[in-house]
Amino acid sequence: MNRYAHITGWGYAVPDQILTNHDLSLIVDTSDEWIVTRTGIRERRIADKKESTASLATDASIRALHHAGVKPAEIQLIIVATSTPEHIFPATACLVQDQIGASKAGAFDLSAACSGFIYALDMATQAIRTGSLDSALVIGSETLSRFVDWADRNTCVLFGDGAGAIVLQASEEPGGVLSSTLHSDGSGGDLLILPAGGSKQPANEFTISQNLHTIQMNGREVFRFATRVLVQATQDAVHKAGLNLSDIHLIIPHQANQRIIDAATRGLSIAPERVFINVERYGNTSTASIPIAVCEAAAQGKLNPEDNVVFVGFGAGLTWGASVIRWSSPFLTRRKIHPARYRLPARLRSFLLRLLRKIEGWIWGNWQ
Ligand code: ACO
Hints:
By secondary structure, the chain is of the alpha/beta class. 37% of the residues lie in helices and 21% in strands. Helix 3 (53-68) packs across helix 4 (92-100) and helix 8 (219-240) crosses helix 9 (258-268). The chain is globular.
């Protein structure tokens, strides 16, 4: 019997704090006119001190679970695609697992820069299609503002913070994720890099003085690469799904730069109305950009059951990839739980587990 992985819930979370192009022009030598004409970005969201990659991911996940009508305990796998994890370890996905109380889920982070959401979607889809699990939460979450050099006008105007999540569920009904194509080219790793903070260059006085804990980018090369691979990956994924471009209702590309998306739209010879763009309000939120765009496209009535949709992304690595999805609706079988009712049981569970661990440690220590 064939199994399919359907997207049955979606949610996003962005910080309230807005940083406009005008605000940026007070920090670096730039202007609203330059940023809008070169990137299409008008404003981006910036996390405050209380917000983090895990907290945004948790908020987005709760909304996605609520939308799907799925309880956290029904989720069997959590993947957080991120370039700005909370820590090197533990995985941000484990923090989300705890904060939503997904007591039966495995959890791990996936690092493929801005293509991470496409990679994570494919990993979870394969696990569902092979029968290894029935439901997964796939999240893209970032706090890039913490890794931006706020004195570098080449990069600081581009990025923003946010998170998006989807619930994937198994069904025998054909549809859901139809195909994916994933690619990489490590020879371009130096084009977009966060050089220090890993095992090669742990934090020290030199790395801090040289600003090596912030994003470094060769914008022109990344631009050239992006316009080429967005077209190729879209065509490959559509072909793999056994479809033609004319069968595709909507393309949701990684939101990095309006000009990159426009060039890809021309390269694919499709009408601009069939490509979803919201880069003007969020900037580049890396792994979160596609799931945030998915939520907004759905809210605007641009995603309807049976529509064929392409998600396509590119990013550091270099990495790129695309997926074709036949859109589904939530498989609602029961009344939805209010989002507020996800948090309290999760907090209580987490508190009791920590307490139990302390008691066990105390008993163990006294008996040795
Ligand atoms: N304001 C004003 N001037 C600027 C700014 C700014 N914010 N940034 C650069 N400039 C200047 C440059 O210094 C340069 O001046 P010069 O000619 O005197 O040297 C001039 O503008 C033109 O610079 P270019 O780099 O040629 O500008 P370009 O049109 O290529 O746009 C940009 C730059 C927006 C960065 C573009 O190259 C781009 O979007 N590249 C892709 C970046 C991207 O998408 N990265 C994310 C990938 S996904 C991931 O994994 C995170």
